[in-house]
Specification:
By secondary structure, the protein is α/β, with parallel strands linked by helices. The protein has three domains: about 5-130, Response regulator (Rossmann fold), CATH 3.40.50.2300; about 140-255, Beta-Lactamase (2-Layer Sandwich); about 265-425, Reverse transcriptase/Diguanylate cyclase domain (Alpha-Beta Plaits). About 45% of the residues lie in helices and about 25% in strands. It contains 15 helices and 19 strands. The protein has a seven-stranded antiparallel sheet with strand order 7-6-12-11-10-8-9. Strands 2-1-3-4-5 form a five-stranded parallel sheet, sandwiched between helices. A five-stranded mixed sheet has the order 14-15-13-18-19, with helices on both faces. It is rod-shaped and about 120 Å long.
Length: about 450
Amino acid sequence: MEKSRILIVEDEGLVARDLESMVRNLGYRVVGICSTGEEALHLIKTRRPDLIIMDIVLQGKIDGIKAADEIRRHYNLPIIFLTAHTDEATFQRAKMTNPLAFIHKPIEQKELMTVIEMALYKHRTEMKLREKEEWLATILEGIADGVIATDAHGVITFMNPVAAALTGWNPQSGVSRRLEDIVRLYDGDREISFSLSPQEIIVHGGFPRNVSNLWIVNQQKKTPVEIKASIIRDENGSPSSLVILLHDITERRQHEEELRRLAIHDPLTQLPNRTLFFDRLNLALSQVRRHGHRLAILMLDLDHYKKINDTYGHSIGDLLLKEVGRRLQGAIRSSDTVARFGGDEFVLLMPEIHGSADAAIIAKRILEVVSLPYEIKELPLFITVSIGVAIFPEDGEDGETLITNADLALYAAKDKGRNCFFFYSDLKISPEPQPDQA
């Protein structure tokens, strides 16, 4: 067994030599002798002692008490104080540094042996207890997550049921296997698979990769996760075990996706809202300009919807709007987009049509499906729709112009008697049709 390493800090040369002789006779290794606090702090870095025997009163700017405070805060090494005729105030200051023992001069070898053994044993016990407490605390903090513990070489010593479900291994089978064999990961952004390496965790001081789209993979499924890795160190500062926390973020991802969906969809009908519609319109315009195709915008407004709302209430009106939205989705092509613009107004984007005849076919179909009878909470309801149509590029070469002209055509359809569609190209500019809010 390696001898414990002791640093002696004593400014009286004769006392220091006697102390060195006694320490060696007791079977310990003296790794350095110095007379000032400054020298002690320097030697600690290079000699790495297990124990320090230090006089309270030292030469130089840093006395034993100040040196002990620095050692306690930065190195967590056990200290035995030497004292002669120390006054009460100095003694109380010394106690604040939490030394493990005091030895009064002149020093007796038997007493020195007892104090050194006691100090080393107490310090080792405290360090083992602290190591165990840190290990348990890390596990308890992540108990709702997947928890895997390994030794310093990455051999699994513990895994909880959540970790077992995420990795696809049961705890009994997973324990004693290597971490790399159990935790298989996937970088969704880079589209690469990789293993969790204990060596990388130790080198980087934690989970070694910055991956925003991280998944843990087993034979049945893959799960989005966040990973944290902690290193538990022994009394020498060497890694003794690793603790890996696997946090399942499936619900958070679903919530974020729902928030994104709500931001671009109408909450009542679940149809795209204005934001999503204009995104798709701008994309469609760039494509038809590139390929020389045409597209159509159909503005839709329900006829006399306000009368239904006023008669039966907003809850019935809302249910009617939801059913109209459902019917519109069933009447259009898979490449088309129907959106709710607000109130009882809808808009339809038809990309890549051959001509106005394609728009007329869909417009007629919409008139038919919307005018079919409704039953809302056992109430028989009837409603029709008026439609205005604008074609790219002849009725406008940008989205705003097309929407405006389809709106004008819609007013013309209202003036014409409702329950019909009207093309902007057929619109007589004078007199202009007037907006009808019904």
